[in-house]
Amino acid sequence: MKPAKKKSPPLKSNLQADSKPSGYHHGNLREEVLEHSRKVLETKGVSSLSLRDIAGDLGVSHTAPYRHFPKKMDLLQALVAEGFRELTEAMQRAWDHSEDPFEKVKMAGVEYIFLLLKSPRRTELMFGGEIYVSGDTLSEELREYGKLAYLGMFKIVEFGQKSLKLKNSVPTDTLMMSFWSGVHGFAVLNERKWKQIKSKEEEGIFRKEVDTILEIMIEGTRL
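Now predict its structure.
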């Protein structure tokens, strides 16, 4: 009697044999890529951003992020659009903060300073990064949020002028840019100081300094 033949295991295709779970089973990969990209951008800089590396860090196939961001510039534009969206929301909070024109302007400065200090490398991209010289067309999302952020600050300054509290001898956009430039410069110059803060007491001292600087700036805009 011949021994029964052992059944051979079913053959696997190369794809089956070599495949690993890609992790691309969730529907929020775009948000995860953006969140991880923010961390890489702030800790290592824009030159270290790589869609392939991000895919590896997130445990998905190296092609998965490209479904949302066909190239690196698309990712950078999305990060910048996100920054302008947050700035738009910050200007709305400043507008809602008080009916007093000076308090609105002051809170706009506070919001901007701490938004920049939270994400300084992203802010660099927002106001002069490589996306503007790359030759790529700016996305509709980026252009829309950029416009809304600008109008948010413009509205606050215009309100102060119409309330006869801020100088109205100069155009609104000129007065706005004068204030905004000062606020931006203060935040940039104090980025290192902010990062070195280790206690609530030190943070409180820094915030008082911010208030004082903003009051000095606002004094120069008074009618």
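The domain at 27-70 is CATH 1.10.10.60 (Arc Repressor Mutant, subunit A).
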